Amino acid sequence: MTDQVVDASVVFEVLAGGGTAELRRRMLTRSSSAPELVQVEVLSVLRRAARRGTVARRDADAIAERLAAEIVGFPVR
């Protein structure tokens, strides 16, 4: 499959359980690359969402744990 580059907003949506089924499928079945600071950028998006109240604190903690567990080793471009 074709390599795709993902940004923080896409990674956040997928980790938060959002996005379309097609987006989640592509993230799981395609080879993905991300910017070097994607984890920091996702945490920034997550912090902003938690401060605005669009993500509950316990959900934010779970998303941060998923980020640490699932995004380690993402190829950087």
Task: Tell me about this structure.
This protein is mainly α and 77 residues long. Helices cover 60% and strands 5% of the residues. The chain contains four helices and two strands, in the order βααβαα. 14% of the residues are buried. The model has no long low-confidence stretch (mean pLDDT 82).
Secondary structure layout:
Blueprint: E1 4-5, H1 8-15, H2 21-29, E2 32-33, H3 38-52, H4 57-70
Parallel strand pairs: 1-2
Helix pairs in contact: 1-3, 3-4
CATH class: Alpha Beta
The largest sheet is: 2 strands, parallel
Q: Based on the coordinates given, report the CATH architecture.
A: 3-Layer(aba) Sandwich
Unreliable stretches, pLDDT < 50, 5 or more residues? none
Fraction of residues in H or I helices:
55-70%
> Would you count the extended β strands for me?
2
What string gives the helices and strands in order?
Answer: EHHEHH
Mean pLDDT across the residues is 82
Instruction: Give the percentage of residues in beta strands.
Output: 5-15%
